[in-house]
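## Example record

The block below lists the input lines for one assembly entry, exactly as stored, with component labels intact.
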Amino acid sequence: MHGLVNRAIQRFVVDSYGSAQWAAVARNADLGFVEFEAMWTYEDSLTPRVLAAVCDVLDRPYDELMEDIGTYLVSHPNLEALRRLLRFGGVNFLDFLHSLDDLPDRARLAVADLVLPRIELREHNPHQFSLNCEGDIPGCGHLFTGVLRAMADDYGALVFLEHQGVKDGVETVAIALLETDFAEGRGFELGVSV
Amino acid sequence: MSGGTLCYKMLNVMCPMHVILNRNGDIRFAGPTAQKLLPDGSLVGRSFLDVFEIKRPREIKSISALREKAGMKLHMQFRDPPHRELKGVLMEGPEVGQMIVNLSFGISVVDAVQEYKLTAADFAPTDLTIEMLYLVEAKSAAMEASRQLNRRLQGARIAAEEQALTDTLTGLKNRRAMDQVLADLIAEGECFALMHMDLDYFKAVNDTMGHAAGDHVLQQVSKIMLNEVRSRDTVARVGGDEFVLLLRDVEDPAIIDQIANRIIKKLSEPIYFEGARCEVSGSAGTTLSSNYPVLTADNLLGDADVALYESKYRGRGRHTFFSEDLREKERDPALASSRTPIVKHA
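Predicted structure tokens for the full assembly:
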């Protein structure tokens, strides 16, 4: 598993619960180290072990944890870069939804060996969509629920999201787009001073 | 005229950063993105060549010269500061004498979107500018993560090297490790001997037979020394061809002399490297911890060095114990300058 994924879990725990909790997770998962390197590759089996340890240490249900991580990835100020990269997907939330099919390719353009879950958007009518996700780690549907919720907020759209369960390893998230311009949303300028 | 209107509508969507010039080269219309290039749409009404300087092709100073370059890539620049550079391409418009110039920011697009506060809506849906901006940010973020990793790895490497206690060539302890063992021995108040041993003629082997042969000799020499001491003793390589042996729990000079002479004898036997004969020998000097009312590492090392020097002076390939009178002896300056003492003593 790519270090970026493991590092994201680490940063979620550190930024939301503090370094002491993360140290407890690292011990619980028997990592033998505390810091994940974003640009290293780790054994695939490590990630589920870390997630289980996070649930154990924080005493949180797995699905809820995955959704929280998804929300964190988009909304935490420490990960502003990631929010910006996602915002390049579209000018409004609808546009963004349609860009989701390209997301794994976009990620690969940035980091060649980063493999994201396979995702596919289905449009049932202009307001009803569903997102199918299939990843190596269970719960990626919950993760995307968190990401979509935070992105809707970011764009100022009003949406209703529901995880509809797993079938043959594919998780489905129902998306009801109630209003594209519900609230102000957060700003996004193409250019930023680096 | 209706054909013209259709064309203008098309241009606004497909090339939002275009300008339309009349036969005199005045800007009659600017597309929605082009309008943002100058404040309050002040682009319209001005002469194209007053606003822009064509840098390449070089010879374009007049509208008629510009007209001849239809279809070619134009490198241009605002005449007003900050002299932003643009790329352009010009074609005849649908009306007589009319010219249409489509503009682009080229590689300076990252700065330009900021300066003109452009959004995704300012670019044609097929324009790859947004993807390019995405890539610039994504790659910068990935590069930064890699840079941080490299910095940490470099730091870890330096720290590891600083903490290393082993001489990588011979597997013996290095100078730092020897200093630690010596400090421990002094602190524990144990009785021990410190032997400083220097290879004779090693430089000649290195110079005439090459570094690979020299390295091989050092490895063989290390094995010889390790074989002649007990496992609780310490053998350290403290310089190119200099070694320090710390022998524990020995007081009897006869035993120490025996060890030294056994090592020197074996060192004097030829060592073969790829069939070639390498000949070295060893000179040694020893001081005993029991010589001192107060022990310091510098004194021990300095005195062993004096004794070693005496061995060299008396013709090499031998072992000498330190004694106070050695320090007073007159030295051959040529011999003294041929080697650097392990510690500088006053």
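Chain B has three domains: 2-118, 128-163, 175-337. Chain B touches chain A through 27 residues (CB under 8 Å).
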